[in-house]
Write a structure and sequence with these properties.
It comes from Perilla frutescens var. hirtella. By secondary structure, the protein is of the alpha/beta class. The protein has helices spanning 5-10, 34-69, 106-113, 130-139, 143-146, 177-183, 219-229, 249-255, 262-282, 337-350, 440-448, 461-465; strands at residues 86-92, 116-118, 153-154, 161-162, 188-191, 210-211, 240-245, 289-294, 300-303, 307-309, 320-322, 326-329, 359-363, 382-386, 391-393, 402-405, 419-422, 430-432.
Length: 470
């Protein structure tokens, strides 16, 4: 069969110029593999580039993710309308830590959410009573140093008796914040804070700025009076203000901290905080004002079955200066305190005294040092520490009652109150460890950027609470 030219051209075994390599030198065997080598090199470079790019992208992703997880350093916010810092210190007497969760307290929680809170409460000074603690808050001093060692006590040097109506300067030692501001040429206003009515040093309790205590003044009137200060010109607005509410201390004593009726008092106080916030917002200064919301002490339930009787301890009534929860005894000079303490402890350990195991009696200088309750002649030589929930009375009575009390060892958790602060130098939603209320004095002077008087607080404490200014 003859093969035509077309058939020959179509035959696959017929070599053509198009199928020949460009270099026809058969002496170089490697030359035939060059295209494959180039392809492999190209693919390797491409893969290396892809891997490097992927690694770079992964590194960048991780870097920016890590950077995003690092919180931005919060700094103090500049004032808006006010020209200088203002501190408003508010006391809710007997507001035990945890009350803010007993019922709805939207206004208190608003301050917590956008401010700074002592996560497990504010620690009172010992004794955990109203007047010693309120005065410690504004002086930064323990009671042994500011002189108000109890709500009621006797000065052994003079025989004079201190009550909560005593306004003579001789009782009130130290330098409270309103006096500190007056010494610096700044204005202060006080609304019923214990000790504020005392004319002392440069503070003369001016009529327009110092309210004489009157428990019949409604809470609404107190709030509105404070708000009116913000209607003044900037130069006339007090740099430091106090506001005091008796609740919920009264209800805590009457019903105890666990009674449902305590919630009414908590709700009322919260509504007053709401009234204050609304008034400050209407005036455009809410974010400018440093609000410090505190209590002076907590509260614990007590009942008659938890009683210790001093008749069982052979202690005459005239020796007693304070019964409960702080037992304070000043025996006559012919009965050495050391011997009295030894005899009391002997009886307490004997088992003959009902509930005797819940009372510990000390010479004041042998009290735990953390109580800071010895360095004053106003403190009687014998101090009894009563366990939480127990009370001391002189003689057995037939009455039966349950209520609440405070004044116990300040290490007892039920004695804690609250610290909630909101303002330009307080972090938003921040929790801080609990601390003693003697630290508040330095906190206020730091916010106002003024020098304070010597006190028992630590100079560095404000750095742990306040935002840096820059």
């Amino acid at each position: 069969m003859a093969i035509t030219a077309n058939e020959e051209d179509d035959h696959p075994n017929t070599p053509t110029t198009a199928l020949l390599p460009f270099n026809t030198d058969s002496s170089s065997a490697l030359s035939n593999r060059k295209p494959a080598t180039i392809t492999l090199i190209f693919i390797s470079l491409l893969l290396s580039t892809c891997i490097a790019l992927a690694a770079a992208l992964s590194f960048a992703f991780l870097f920016f993710r890590a950077a995003a997880s690092i919180p931005t350093r919060e700094v103090a916010r500049p004032l808006g309308k006010l020209k200088s810092p203002v501190v408003l210190l508010i006391s809710m007497d007997g507001f035990r830590f945890g009350y803010q969760f007993k019922t709805e307290t939207p206004n208190i929680h608003r301050l917590i959410k956008s401010g700074t809170e002592a996560e497990l409460g504010l620690i009172p000074v010992f004794p955990s009573l109203t007047f010693p603690n309120h005065y410690s808050i504004v002086t930064g001093l323990y009671p042994a140093y500011h002189g108000i060692v109890n709500n009621f006590f006797i000065d052994p040097a003079t025989g004079d008796f201190f009550t909560m109506a005593s306004h003579e300067p001789k009782w009130w030692l130290g330098e409270p914040l309103w006096e500190t501001l007056s010494n610096r040429g700044l204005k202060a206003s006080t609304y019923f804070w214990p000790g504020s009515e005392v004319k002392k040093g440069s503070w003369d309790c001016p009529n327009e700025y110092c309210m004489i205590y009157n428990g019949s003044v409604t809470f609404e009137d107190r709030v509105d009076s404070v708000l009116r200060f913000f209607d003044l010109s900037s130069s006339e607005i007090p740099s430091f203000m106090t506001l005091y509410f008796e609740d919920p201390d009264h209800q805590g004593h009457k019903f105890g901290p666990d009674d449902p009726r305590i919630t009414e008092a908590i709700t009322r106080v919260d509504s007053m905080i709401g009234r204050l916030i609304s008034g400050l917002e209407e005036r455009g200064v809410f974010e400018d004002v440093s609000i410090i919301l505190v209590g002076d002490h907590g509260m614990v339930g007590t009942c008659d079955k938890k009683l210790i009787y001093l008749d069982d301890l052979e202690i005459p009534k005239p020796w007693i200066q304070s019964y409960s929860p702080l037992l304070a005894i000043r025996p006559p000079s012919d009965h050495p305190p050391k011997e009295v303490v030894a005899r009391m402890n002997e009886l307490l350990k004997s088992g003959s005294v009902v509930n005797g195991e819940y009372l510990r009696v000390y010479l004041k200088e042998e009290l735990p040092r953390r109580l800071h309750y010895a360095a004053s002649d106003r403190i009687p030589p014998i101090i009894g520490l009563v366990e939480e929930g127990f009370k001391v009375e002189q003689t057995r009575l037939k009455r039966q009652e349950c209520g609440g009390s405070h004044g116990y060892d300040n290490a007892v958790f039920s004695m804690r109150s609250v610290f909630i602060a909101h303002g330009p130098q307080f972090g938003r939603g921040r929790k801080v460890p609990s601390f003693e209320n003697v630290q508040i004095y330095n906190l206020v002077t730091s916010i106002l950027n003024i020098d304070g008087a010597p006190n028992n607080g630590t100079e560095s404490f404000p750095l742990s609470i306040l935002l840096p200014r820059h």
